[in-house]
Amino acid sequence: MVTKRTRKRKTPEKSWLLRHSLTIVTCLLLGTWLCGYIWLDPKSRLAAFCGNAVADWSGSLVIILGTKFFYEVGSKESRPFHSHGANKWWNLLVEHSLLIFIGLTGIVWAVLFCRMQPDSKWGQVVGNLLSEWGQMAGLVFLTKKLMEIGSKE
């Protein structure tokens, strides 16, 4: 009796550039919107668009990197959590590190926004960033218990 050996195909390891292409392209787009906002006439529609895009793409970058490095127990979007020892407080911090990170950086945006004129050039961008951070924190929190049919879950 002849048996066929099944050969495992080795998948070629992807290059560093390809493995991080989403982060790289997102950073390039964010840089483009930042440059546009800095150099364009602040009263132009294009500058207003770039300012709004800065907040949106900053939020996208935080979600891309946040879900890569941080955890949120119960959130389907977060990577699985593995206990880091017997220390309950440390595990609690790690289990909720994504929401904690978004919350702490959101506080920084809030403090910065409170110290700026909301109708100034950068005040509008920081206000949009603060709004984006609130939306991200809300979505991370809501995805712990709520679901949407047809979604990844």
Please give a structural write-up:
The chain has 153 residues and is mainly alpha-helical. 63% of the residues lie in helices and 0% in strands. The chain is built from six helices and no strands. The longest helix is centred in the middle third of the chain and has 25 residues. The protein starts with 15 loop residues before the first helix and ends in an 11-residue tail after the last helix.
Question: How are the SSEs ordered, and which strands pair?
Answer:
Blueprint: H1 16-19, H2 21-39, H3 45-69, H4 88-95, H5 97-114, H6 121-142
Helix pairs in contact: 2-3, 3-6, 5-6
Provide the succession of SSEs.
HHHHHH
Mean pLDDT: 85
How much of the polypeptide forms β-strand, as a percent range? under 5%
Question: How many beta-strand runs?
Answer: 0
From the spread of the alpha carbons, the general shape counts as globular
